[in-house]
# Entry
Amino acid sequence: MKEIFDILLNRRTIRNYLEKDVSDEILHRILSAAIRTSTTGNMQVYSIIITRDSEKKKELLPLHFNQKMVIEAPVLLTFCADFNRFTKWCRQRKAEPGYDNFLSFFTAAIDALIVAQTVCIAAEASGLGICYLGTTTYMAHKIIEVLNLPKGVVPVTTLTLGWPAGIPEQVDRLPLEAVIHHETYRDYSSDDIDKIYHEKEQRPDSLKFIRENNKETLPQVFTDVRYRREDNIHFSKLLLKVLKDQGFMNQ
Amino acid sequence: MKEIFDILLNRRTIRNYLEKDVSDEILHRILSAAIRTSTTGNMQVYSIIITRDSEKKKELLPLHFNQKMVIEAPVLLTFCADFNRFTKWCRQRKAEPGYDNFLSFFTAAIDALIVAQTVCIAAEASGLGICYLGTTTYMAHKIIEVLNLPKGVVPVTTLTLGWPAGIPEQVDRLPLEAVIHHETYRDYSSDDIDKIYHEKEQRPDSLKFIRENNKETLPQVFTDVRYRREDNIHFSKLLLKVLKDQGFMNQ
# Structure
């Protein structure tokens, strides 16, 4: 097995998978390691829904905007903030739970997300590839129906998991200094912004991306095509409604 | 270096640290690996604030409810959802950003949290110990002042980082089957709850915990002492106000 820093530094998100299953044994090994991840007050207020059934994947496909990994990956894992199990335990033990509020949702979301990231690293260390599906928070209201999630449970992210069909080019990252701050936040001057994004903006893949989208600058691809204000507002409203409907907005 | 599954399976949260610094070199190596973590649309909408200064730690101490790791650990890392940098870049490139809404906050929080978990694993693989401080979301409004966080930036979690002073007992976890579901969520019956929590409830440390808190059942320690409804409601209101004040509630 490769050294952990090699795995972390050389990772790529994998969107193309071999037609080869991930055994229950490997999945079990990954998940058993992942549940050792830190969790608030050792409450483990998360659940992981494993999707292997192809009919279920077809139901989830449009909810993830028809990204083909959803049906091509042998395994999907939907990570949920889950206070349902813990609340039931409280009620069965003469304790009055008070976890139907936004702080509790966010606490449970943290639990779910950091477990998800441990799953990614354990999977990559096992030779598997992963891809996060950000669509989970956009379409949470529909995913809740398909996965039959009760009150107290909200999906926060999904991973596709499988054996990589080829190794794509590694994408760029900002220089480390761009994302860290020492002691206090040093806000970015215009010059800082120019410097931080300079390399990214000069990359052939960035220039191609601008051209393909008929835009003038790289940020315009994000603001006008990929992550548009009107979509963000629409999905913000839906997500806040999900939190209310799932019983997390009683504060 | 140990095999990654050994690291994950044998980890413990570390709350006691040696009086020994973490070198810039080691920290740089960990953070350089961590920024390879998946990020929404490769936007990297997070920032990491590094605290080493003892005066700064003293300011943060009460905001983390006087947990002594805050001053005893050589390094604190505050992970923030950050759309400030990206928004500034958009504005400087004739693009109109639309990231002042709840979905964008949650997207940035996911980015920040999964980077934090990669930092944990890279740190533990380097022989360091970590502890998550859940108080970050409780006291975000004050942490924002101390760390000078501008609009568009919200702290979502904090890690203490240092060399372990001794290895504590490993705490329990629920059986894996308690937190996973196959294809759809199978809601828990009373019997399921009894079974899932049985081992935890019989543990000597749990029984001691109940006794020390003068309670009758283990969940009562959570509902009446550790994570009380009135506190959750209070901190929910504060956190939602932080999201509004930091400019993330325009939907």
Remarks:
- Chain B touches chain A through 122 residues (CB under 8 Å).
